[in-house]
């Protein structure tokens, strides 16, 4: 087929649209090369009319095709004709509809085609996000002009509602002209009801008054932005979306109501639709399995994930069970999970031959419930449910408001009888927990609120005792959610940070769950979920808590790593197969437990009896449960990890047993205690009071630290001021007590004071300036990215709290810097900092295994005094190329050190290579998760 063949021409309507929307002049974004020769491609395209739609001949990004063809996932975007005036862009399982109407061109359509051409996100979420980003500056102007932030938000939300076809008629049309014709122009007052008389009735009083004092110039700007976009009232699904502003824009607008746009204060983050639908489907499978015990897992997964009812003997009974499902989101925000559950219920009902509309109406009226502390968020949730009903022609048959509540779920009684508790509870660090709506809450109010939560948790679950005071807010939502489940048979499904799997405060929850709650599954999905939250996440599925302690120790917990996107419908068979995997009892021996590992399609599962998990996490010294790094051991660990454990039995000790680390110095006033060279010269402080100190990992360029080369000295003085009279040290202390200094708490500026002695952290000290020195000869970086390993010093020097320090013999210094030790530390470390950082607390470092008793490590330091490179440089791996296409080429001194360790462990050459490759893969994945949402792995994480 050649460019001149009649069959090679695209349809006339596509040519017409192309000419209407863009021209090739000036490198316009919409330049489409039409009617060219077939593209060179290894795929069987001989029978398809194929044309370059975007990109170039050398690097096609999208293809126009007359027929459906199979392509490898993620390789191309196929573009085919939908109804007249639309393109269907298909990549993987789902497709995106781009409307191209010459009679009604929209800027958002052009942007979608530009993004398609440039290989960027062009779907519904991206379009909604761009719309909201345009609105935010104008929203700020309107809220300042009116003095009514919530009323201004309602104005924007109402206009989004008004602009959606099917919600209020034909969509926006010429909104500015309609506004002027409504008689309000010149009055500087806006009323949505003027342009959409039925809108106020549809909202049923769940919004502020319909008028707001808004200057006309702002009204014009708002409406002009709206008219640049195409809107749809249909929610995005993993299989179908439109390149238009969807109802999720209501959620995104509401999200920006948080004070100063700082969502870290409220812990509110918008959950992507693919994760929402995965969670709703997975929870529904479990809930239906309780009500339909005669139906196998394969049939239920096929029904809910793939809409195939072939394996169900009694569809009427299944429909009846579906109608009985009740679900609640205890922190519903703007309703993403309620809308997702509504969509999953609808498509499941249709797969069973029932009425999707009837199922949705029943669910909104009786089955779905939501609560949130933000009134605007609850309004947004109701609006989205209303739009979902109207998109299915079910509007008016049920009110979305009757089961939505404004309030603090944690403050209400922890009780209920729901089949499903689902959601994305807020993530708030323990020191920031405060009563909702109390942005200025003081220490007393915060303390009282947290005390009430701790007491309530202990009362509802006596077996738990008192939760750790360091617990994040989402831990209390876990406990509250469990109390809201029907017993037995309820299902909790939350997406949360991974911290509860690894941290000290998570150990109490771990033990409580192991003894009292069926841990159905913990899922680790590819990529990072939230761009705005500095965390990595997991999806946790739990059953109803048992009324008797230790009744759940025989239950198999499953840790599942999913390699496919959560919207992949082919996951149904893999997930069902994972449930068939039955773990054997292993007496808590981790190396033996590795025999439970199974691979099924796109899933890797580590099933383990909860009794084994309890034994594995016990402290060998006192027998108490101390917690375990579940993320590293069961979700992220490569298979070579278990080989190393098995072959290395008897060759490991815990670091803390041979060289206990402790946290470096927290001075409370770095500006006073750390002096650079200029400060040392300026104040004339005697040398006996100035001690070399490592302040930052950036100072450590080589493996060995030379104290004389360090830039900073720590001021260390314990003598009384009377003894110091007339000395440089005495004058320096006096100056510190006289100068005006900024006060900070937890990194935040909280005011100013005269003199460092007035800092709160020094109030109880006899001599405020008496710094407790902490140092050693071995230094572990508290947080790191791609540079792994410890720094060593021949003599003891001090270090800041960015390091952990230990006084260690040469054998330990060599052992902790071996690649095998780096591999074990990477596997077992926390990677919950979503910007790519690896972080371990000091107690976690002391529990890490390190090679011991290996001949040849105790003589001298085996790593030369040279630059410490990234893990890729140290192992001889290029991170820009596929790792599995390379052979490791470690640096010579590292290779000599590693050879001693590998030989002692009896690792084969292939296993040795696997250690290098697996280590580099884990680091690349950890830092790549940050890149997956536009982050940078070397950007220091923001403190929450």
Automatic annotation (TrEMBL):
In Swiss-Prot or TrEMBL terms, this protein is called site-specific DNA-methyltransferase (adenine-specific)
Report the EC code(s) recorded for this entry.
2.1.1.72
- Classification via PANTHER family: DNA METHYLASE (MODIFICATION METHYLASE) (METHYLTRANSFERASE)-RELATED, DNA METHYLTRANSFERASE YEEA-RELATED
Record's keyword annotation contains Hydrolase: no
Q: Which InterPro entries does the record match to this protein?
A: DNA_methylase_N6_adenine_CS, MethylTrfase_TaqI-like_dom, N4_N6_ade-DNA_methylase, SAM-dependent_MTases_sf
Type II methyltransferase M.TaqI-like domain residues are 414-525
UniProt organism field: Methanofollis formosanus
Give the enzyme's main class according to its UniProt record, as a single word: transferase
A Pfam cross-reference name? Eco57I
The GO terms describing molecular function are: nucleic acid binding; site-specific DNA-methyltransferase (adenine-specific) activity
Which reaction does this enzyme catalyse, per its entry?
a 2'-deoxyadenosine in DNA + S-adenosyl-L-methionine = an N(6)-methyl-2'-deoxyadenosine in DNA + S-adenosyl-L-homocysteine + H(+)
At the top level, the lineage of the source is: Archaea
């Amino acid at each position: 087929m050649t460019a001149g063949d009649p069959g090679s021409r695209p349809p006339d309507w596509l040519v017409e649209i192309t000419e209407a929307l863009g021209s090739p002049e000036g490198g316009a974004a919409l330049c489409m090369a039409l009617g060219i020769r077939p593209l060179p491609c290894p795929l069987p395209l001989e029978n398809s009319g194929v044309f370059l739609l975007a990109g170039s001949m050398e690097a096609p990004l999208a293809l126009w095709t007359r027929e459906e063809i199979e392509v490898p996932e993620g390789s191309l975007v196929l573009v085919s004709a939908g109804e007249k005036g639309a393109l269907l862009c298909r990549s993987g399982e789902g497709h995106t509809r781009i409307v191209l109407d010459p009679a009604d061109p929209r800027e958002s359509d052009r942007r979608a085609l530009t993004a398609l051409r440039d290989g960027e996100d062009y779907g519904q979420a991206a379009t909604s996000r761009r719309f909201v980003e345009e609105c935010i500056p104008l929203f700020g102007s309107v809220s300042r002009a009116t003095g009514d932030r919530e009323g201004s938000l309602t104005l924007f939300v109402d206009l989004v509602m008004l602009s959606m076809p099917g919600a209020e008629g034909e969509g926006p049309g010429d909104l500015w002209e309609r506004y002027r014709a409504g008689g309000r122009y010149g009055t500087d007052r806006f009323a949505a009801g003027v342009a959409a008389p039925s809108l106020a009735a549809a909202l049923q009083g769940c919004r502020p008054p319909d008028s707001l004092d808004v200057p006309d110039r702002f009204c014009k700007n708002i409406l002009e932005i709206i008219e640049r976009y195409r809107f749809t009232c249909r929610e995005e699904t993993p299989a179908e979306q439109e390149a238009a502003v969807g109802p999720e824009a209501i959620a995104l607008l509401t999200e920006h109501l948080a004070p100063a746009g700082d969502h870290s204060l409220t812990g509110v983050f918008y959950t992507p639709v693919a994760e929402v639908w995965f969670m709703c489907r997975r929870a529904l499978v479990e809930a239906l399995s309780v009500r339909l015990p005669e139906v196998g897992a394969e049939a239920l997964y096929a029904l809910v994930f793939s809409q195939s009812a072939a394996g169900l003997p009694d569809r009427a009974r299944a429909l009846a069970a579906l109608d009985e499902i009740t679900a609640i989101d205890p922190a519903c925000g703007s309703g993403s999970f309620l809308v997702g559950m509504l969509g999953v219920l609808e498509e499941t009902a249709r797969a069973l031959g029932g009425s999707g509309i009837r199922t949705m109406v029943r669910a909104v009226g009786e089955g779905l419930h939501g609560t949130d502390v933000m009134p605007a968020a609850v309004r947004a949730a109701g609006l989205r449910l209303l739009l979902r009903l109207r998109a299915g022609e079910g509007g008016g048959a049920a009110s979305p408001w009757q089961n939505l509540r404004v309030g603090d779920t944690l403050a209400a009684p922890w009780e209920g009888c729901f089949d499903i508790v689902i959601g994305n509870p807020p993530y708030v660090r323990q020191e920031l927990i405060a009563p909702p709506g109390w942005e200025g809450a003081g220490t007393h109010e915060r303390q009282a609120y947290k005390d009430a939560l701790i007491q309530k948790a202990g009362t509802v679950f006596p077996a738990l005792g008192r939760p750790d005071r360091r617990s994040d807010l989402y831990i209390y939502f876990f406990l509250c959610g469990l109390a809201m489940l029907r017993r037995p048979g309820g299902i909790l499904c939350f997406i949360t940070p991974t911290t509860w799997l690894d941290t000290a405060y998570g150990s109490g929850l771990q033990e409580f769950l192991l003894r009292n709650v069926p841990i159905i599954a913990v899922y680790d999905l590819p990529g990072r979920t939230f761009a705005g939250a500095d965390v990595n996440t997991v999806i946790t599925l739990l059953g109803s808590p048992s009324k008797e302690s230790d009744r759940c120790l025989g239950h198999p917990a499953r840790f599942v790593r999913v390699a496919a996107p959560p919207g992949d419908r082919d996951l149904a068979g893999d997930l069902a197969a994972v449930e068939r995997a039955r773990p054997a009892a292993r007496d808590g021996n981790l190396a033996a437990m590795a025999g439970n590992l199974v691979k099924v399609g796109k899933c890797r599962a580590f099933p383990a009896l909860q009794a084994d998990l309890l034994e594995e996490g016990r402290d060998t010294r006192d027998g108490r449960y101390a917690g375990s790094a579940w993320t590293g051991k069961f979700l992220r660990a490569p298979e070579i990890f278990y080989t190393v454990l098995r072959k290395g039995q008897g060759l490991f000790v815990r670091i803390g047993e041979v060289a206990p680390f402790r946290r470096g110095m927290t001075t409370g006033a770095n500006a006073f205690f750390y002096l650079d060279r200029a400060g040392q010269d300026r104040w004339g402080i005697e040398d006996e009071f100035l001690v070399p100190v490592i302040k930052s990992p950036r100072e450590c360029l080589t493996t060995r630290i030379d104290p004389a080369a360090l830039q900073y000295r720590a001021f260390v003085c314990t003598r009384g001021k009377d003894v110091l009279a007339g000395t440089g040290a005495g004058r320096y202390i006096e100056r510190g007590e006289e100068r005006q200094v900024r006060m900070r708490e937890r990194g935040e500026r909280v005011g100013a004071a005269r003199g460092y002695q007035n800092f709160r952290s020094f109030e109880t000290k006899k001599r405020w300036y008496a710094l407790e020195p902490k140092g050693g000869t071995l230094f572990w970086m508290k947080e790191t990215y791609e540079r792994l390993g410890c720094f060593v010093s021949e003599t003891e020097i001090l270090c800041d709290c960015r390091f952990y320090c230990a006084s260690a013999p040469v054998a330990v210094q060599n052992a902790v810097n071996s690649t095998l030790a780096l591999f074990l530390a990477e596997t077992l470390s926390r990677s919950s900092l979503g910007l790519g950082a690896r972080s371990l607390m000091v107690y976690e470092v002391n529990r890490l295994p390190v090679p011991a008793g290996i001949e040849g490590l105790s003589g001298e330091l085996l790593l030369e005094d040279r630059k410490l490179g990234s893990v890729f440089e140290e192992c001889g791996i290029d991170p820009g190329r596929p790792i599995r296409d390379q052979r490791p080429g470690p640096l010579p001194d590292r290779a000599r050190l590693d050879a001693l360790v590998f030989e002692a462990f009896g690792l084969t050459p292939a296993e040795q290579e696997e250690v290098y490759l697996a280590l580099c893969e884990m680091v690349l994945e950890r830092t790549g998760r940050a890149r997956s949402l536009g982050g940078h792995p070397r950007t220091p994480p923001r403190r929450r």
